[in-house]
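[Structure tokenization] protein backbone as discrete codes
[Encoding] learned vocabulary of local backbone shapes
[Protein] chain in single-letter code, fold in tokens
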Amino acid sequence: SIVPLLERWGLTVTAAEDMAEAQEAIEEEQLSLLLLDNNILLEEGRDKLDSALELYSPELPVILIIDEGQPHDPDCWADVLTKPLDRDTLRINLTKLLKNDQQVNS
């Protein structure tokens, strides 16, 4: 899980195991960023995500995390990262996208 790493970096994390939990977090929390594993999209469909984002948080940046070679549309996401995640690349991208919302400590 990536959660312990993000918490060590000083970030507040809301974890979701599936699209229903992700939708709930988008609706109820004030998220600064969404890290999304592409496998959830492949299993549960993108329509649910798009609906929740459109209704509750249309400006929320989404970083898509994919397996190497997985198809994706790079224009739909704030960034796309490939597994295994490079920690430095992840930290740099989080810092860039979070701006002043949260500081990413190393």
